[in-house]
Amino acid sequence: MNFSLSEEQELLQSTVRGFVAKECPPQTARAVFDGKGEAVPALWQGLAEMGIAGLVVPESLGGAGLELLELALVAEELGRGVVPVPFLGHSLAALALARGGSAAQQEAWLPRLASGESRATVALAEDGGRWLPNDWQLELANGRVRGRKLAVPEAEGARLFVVGCAGGALALVEAGPGVTVTPEPVLDRGRPLATLGLDAPAQRLEAADAARLIDAGCVLLAADAFGAAHQLVRATAAYVQTRQQFGQSLAQFQAVKHQLANMALDVDPTRGLWWYAAHAFDHAVAESPRAAALAKSHVTDRAQQAARDAVEAHGGIGFTWESDVHLWFKRVMFDRLWLGAPELHRERYALLAGW
Amino acid sequence: MNLEFGEEYERLRAEARAFCAETWPPRGGESLVGERERAIAWRKRAIAAGFLHRTVPREYGGAGMAPDVMAETVIRQELDRAGVPHRGSVQGTHMLVPTLLECGTEEQRREYIPRTLTGELVWCQGYSEPGAGSDLASLQSRAELAADEWVLTGQKIWTSQADEADMMFGLFRTEPEAQKHAGISYLLVPMKTPGIEARPLTMMQGGTDFCEVFFDGARIPARNIVGKRGEGWKVSRSTLKHERMLIGDSAIVSITFDSLVALARRVRRGGRPALEDPGVRQRLAEIAGHLATQEWSVARMLTAIHQNREMQVMSDMIMAKLLSTNVQQMIAKLALDLIPDSGLHEPTASEAVMGVGEFTPGRWVSTYMYSLAFAIAGGASNVQRNLIGELVLGLPRDRRPPS
């Protein structure tokens, strides 16, 4: 038994970490929050050149032919650095195509998605918190989709949408006439969301499994939240050692030390939970839905608690727009709520457990 | 990443399973002797077959094999499943034996280790005192050398199984003039020595796992010291790195959780099984998240031990105890919420004994109270939080008043 990363996986992760440290310091994410997102396209292009845009695309179509675990390891690093790139939607769309598209669909799109030439994303949610395939109502008939999808990530500039339809079907819709993108006022400005109005031609992804797409999304969100919260705990530990009160650093107060310890305990041990969920997606498929539901609900919930504590430990400054803490806080909020709140996935887990 | 143990270990697993099936429960003449004797006889066979105390050298009664955490894990899983009496005197096998291997004399190793491994010699740990809990090094029990004997005076407390133990390994102040940590020695004390009295303490749920132990001029041989005079603190710390052998016991928590789910299936809320109540399902799934976190942490730790990643092992291990404490408390709390009226009644004497028997309502009430003990025993949770802060996050040590 070996529950650890391979050398290649560690190398992938440290390469992305190095890239983020160099190319995306917190000021970059902060600039996006302040409405200046000029650096984002180059950042995404840089990641695409490293092969990140096509990680799960088959090698024959220009990708790296890797699995969900590798995607999740990248997500961890992007969460750690609050990197404002269109990774989430693009990766899920590429995964849906790579696993469920016809040969023609794959050849038409995957090389372009892998190179970063074109961007894709997924349109899943509908009004009333309908995140899961069984609840989708969007009409797919006669080669057209008609209706509305919500909270579509990074929709502006996307060339291709993987759209969830009634009956749990997935369909490809190209940007163009009949596809309107209306930005939503988002909390995590690093990952913009939009409402998609659809009355457009669509091609069904015949072999796609929408439930598995949701599971993959759950894993990526858990990994992203883990990375963000892990970094936030370390940043808070560093802060309390510099801030002085009563003639000593905050870290000298046991109340503060214990709060930090509880934060680390919330976050650090959950790494194995999403590692396993990512591994199971490709290697223990029967276990995958349960593991994904548990990772999404548990990891993001723990991460959110740690993020709340981080604001508190920073004191007044932690509550300001000027501090970086809220960048991570909002990153984790997104991860916890996109694809549905923990409650939804705990109930899903309960059903899958036969309760 | 590969979660299969692989052919070699699966073969070992099959061998362990076959060994258990063949040897337990014992047949023929062996089955006639008492429970303790049967357990000792079984452990002797298991050691000889290489399924127990694998890494202890042969000359000290072990199986003399190279450390292999994966082999130990698959074997332990099988022994747990088979319900064999592989856990003997845990204080002896997990704390004293590693200490003697590291710091004991040849004579001490030969005298004590073999019989401890089989369970013929039962040990208790004499560390805590009424005035020395988390601040253990402030202990005051004395040992004075008179001719060729140590004369013991003072009191130990929270001493598990002191009333059943043959021997105690304990910390005593032998150099009263020396600085706090430097004045302590690690002694081996036969419990039958005149001048020693162990009085069981009744716990809040009614059982009696631990005792207070009084020393009133008890005399033990001068050679019963491990390490040098005044080095007892260091000797006692040498055991800590062996505590990794205790990891992987999350299996016990899983069994308790399964019993909780069974309870939720059985009891009713609003005319339906509690398991159908949305709030109960949420709480169960939340606990499942904590439990899976613990299980996968253990898997990561096993791999890290196997790969000699010492730093990762250390930080994972420090967190493991608190994690486990928290989960056990959540399980017990939900169980009591499912059967609230039972919490008004005192458990029976047999329900107050932990670790055996079915989960009756009274046993859940006991478990609800006993789960608090995990936050205290073996390092209080607040002390664990200090360790996480200092060793995992690199925060400064507490300022301590000079001693």
Q: Which sheet architecture does the biggest sheet of chain B show?
A: 4 strands, mixed
Please state the overall shape of chain A, judged from the principal axes of the Cα atoms.
Answer: globular
C-alpha-based Rg of chain B, rounded = 23 Å
Q: Span from first to last CA of chain A?
A: 30 Å
Tally the helices of chain B.
11
Domain count of chain B, please report it: 3
Helix/strand-derived class of chain A?
alpha+beta
CATH topology of the largest domain in chain B: Butyryl-CoA Dehydrogenase, subunit A, domain 3
Name the largest protein-protein interface in this structure: A-B, 46 and 55 residues
Compute the number of helices of chain A. Answer: 12
Strand order of the largest sheet of chain B: 1-4-5-8
The CATH class label of the largest domain in chain B is Mainly Alpha
The residue fraction in helices of chain B comes out at: 40-55%
> What is the correct CATH architecture of the largest domain in chain B?
Up-down Bundle
Strand order of the largest sheet of chain A: 1-4-5-8
Structural domain tally of chain A: 3
Contiguous uncertain segments of 5+ residues of chain B: none
Strand content of chain B: 5-15%
Unreliable spans of chain A: none
Walkthrough of the structure:
The complex is a heterodimer of chains A (355) and B (403). Chain A has 355 residues and is of the alpha+beta class. In chain A, 52% of the residues lie in helices and 14% in strands. Chain A has helices spanning 7-23, 26-33, 40-49, 68-80, 87-100, 103-115, 210-242, 254-267, 271-283, 288-314, 325-337, 342-352; strands spanning 120-123, 139-141, 144-153, 160-165, 169-174, 179-183, 193-201, 203-204, 244-245, 248-249. In chain A, helix 4 (68-80) runs antiparallel to helix 9, helix 5 (87-100) runs antiparallel to helix 7 (210-242) and helix 7 runs parallel beside helix 10. The relative contact order of chain A is 0.11. Chain B has three domains: 7-87; 123-230, Butyryl-CoA Dehydrogenase, subunit A, domain 2 (Beta Barrel); 247-392, Butyryl-CoA Dehydrogenase, subunit A, domain 3. Chain B has eleven helices and ten strands. Chain B has helices spanning 7-23, 35-48, 69-82, 90-103, 106-118, 232-237, 250-266, 278-306, 310-338, 361-370, 381-392, and strands at residues 123-126, 142-146, 149-160, 167-173, 184-190, 196-201, 210-221, 225-226, 268-269, 272-273. The mean pLDDT of chain B is 92. The chains are: A alpha+beta (355), B alpha+beta (403). The interface between A and B is large, with 46 and 55 residues.
